[in-house]
Design goal:
Elements: E1 2-5, E2 9-14, E3 24-36, E4 45-48, E5 67-71, E6 74-77, E7 81-84, H1 85-94, E8 102-105, H2 110-122
Parallel strand pairs: 3-8
Antiparallel strand pairs: 1-3, 2-3, 2-5, 3-4, 5-6, 6-7
Helix pairs in contact: 1-2
């Protein structure tokens, strides 16, 4: 394993433990390093202050990444998806037939805060503000 110091912003994604297709909560985090398996046996993963929420399991065909990289104006989900911030929110909420409401708890990146507010106004049916939707 190689540890490569880096900077940037990572969007970590929390899903409920019982059904990751039900909702997702987004956080912005500062990247500190990239952990790279030099053999390629495991995917690259950023190191952030704190830790990642648990990864979603078995949500096929709905894709449920644990994290995405943000480099204004683009978001990249390694080997899965890339595009604009607002398109990322739509993709995460609706990919492959999902109807997964999102909540953003962004505090670091003003661009993410503003982009989510605009997106939420355009897609109120895909947003939850208070408590997550019940099962």
């Amino acid at each position: 394993m190689a540890v490569i110091p880096t900077t940037g912003t990572i969007i970590s994604i929390e899903y409920p433990g019982d059904d990751a297709k039900r909702w997702a909560r987004l956080y912005d985090n500062r990247a500190r390093a990239l952990i790279v398996d030099e053999t390629g046996a495991t995917p690259m993963k950023p190191q952030i202050v704190g830790g990642f929420p648990l990864a979603a399991t078995d949500t096929a065909p709905i894709l449920s990444p644990q994290w995405a990289g943000f480099d204004e104006p683009a978001v990249v989900v390694e080997n899965l998806w890339r595009g604009t911030v607002s398109d990322f929110f739509t993709w995460l909420a609706t990919n492959n037939g999902a109807h997964r409401p999102l909540q953003a708890r962004f505090v670091i990146e003003a661009e993410l805060v503003n982009s989510f507010a605009i997106w939420a106004n355009l897609h109120p049916e895909l947003v939850f503000d208070d408590e997550p939707p019940a099962p």
